[in-house]
Design a protein that fits this description.
Oligomer: single chain
Order of helices and strands: EEEHEEEHHEEHHEEHHE
Structural class: alpha+beta
Radius of gyration: 20 Å
Strand content: 25-35%
Helix content: 25-40%
Number of helices: 7
Shape: globular
């Protein structure tokens, strides 16, 4: 046998060995899978006391061939095979409620720790997908990461679920009390709107690609009917917005549905 080759995949070490007669092609170390939709990743895992949320918003060039858009989405979803990824979904934005930043697609993934997120970010499979399928077709990109705690439910969001994401840019010179007040208002939303099945929120810890947005929230609904029902509760929603409106310098809100299609091939 050749000397054992150690492959570190998302914080977990695997020992690989090959017969003496075999030749290992470096291009075969990592295989990108093609998916027709977002896979159900690790549905049995329950939310722990701390989860890392990773959101990337993409604006695809308007003249991009649809086959290239599909390839981007499929290959991003294929990264669910990485051990450190607890949940991942990528696809088109259903509704963009912000005029200043108009994104067309998004990726949402979850990790058990910041180190697992770092490993995912630098993993050759992820780097390859970004280089070959993402960057060539993008006009703009925004990414936000935060730590969420004490969120109930499964870490893997079921296909068909609707998500509402909100990203807030705070006015300059706000103090910690103002920031904590905003986080407190967001944290109380689930109690006022029972159609929200899961609410995650926190302060962004990766400012480099966040365009100045420092607080994020993600509300999970059973489906689009439940999410749209929230919009009918105008008075209650405006009451919550009024509590923080004068502290914000920008707001991005968008809706997304987790694709329900399963892997096409492995």
């Amino acid at each position: 046998m050749l000397g054992a080759t150690v492959k570190v995949a998302c914080g977990r070490t695997h020992i690989l060995s090959f017969p003496r007669s075999s030749t290992v092609n470096p291009s075969h170390r990592f295989r990108t899978l093609s998916f027709s939709g977002a896979p159900q990743s690790r549905p049995s895992i329950k939310m722990s006391s701390e989860i890392i949320e990773h959101i990337v918003l993409f604006k695809v060039k308007p003249d991009t061939d649809q086959s290239k858009v599909n390839a981007m989405v499929n290959n991003l979803n294929g990264l669910s095979t990485l051990d450190c990824v607890l949940h991942i979904t990528a696809g088109p934005v259903v509704r963009n409620r912000s005029s200043a930043l108009t994104f067309t697609h998004m990726l949402h993934s979850r990790y058990a720790s910041k180190s697992d997120l770092d490993i995912y970010t630098n993993h050759p499979a992820h780097v390859g997908v970004v280089t070959d399928f993402v960057r060539p077709i993008l006009d703009d990109l925004m990414a936000v990461d935060w730590v969420t705690e004490d969120v109930s439910g499964s870490v893997s969001i079921p296909p068909g679920s609707a998500l509402r994401l909100s990203f807030m840019k705070l006015k300059e010179n706000l103090g910690e009390n103002d920031k904590n007040e905003i986080l407190g208002v967001i944290g109380g939303i689930k109690e006022k709107f029972p159609s929200i099945e899961q609410l995650s929120y926190g302060e962004n810890f990766s400012p480099a690609r966040a365009k100045g947005f420092s607080i994020a929230s993600l509300a999970v609904f059973k489906g689009m009917n439940e999410l749209e029902g929230l919009d009918s509760e105008t008075e209650a929603a405006n009451e919550q917005k009024d509590k923080v409106r004068d502290k914000l310098d920008g707001l991005v809100v968008l809706d997304y549905v987790v694709p329900s299609l399963q892997p096409a091939s492995l």
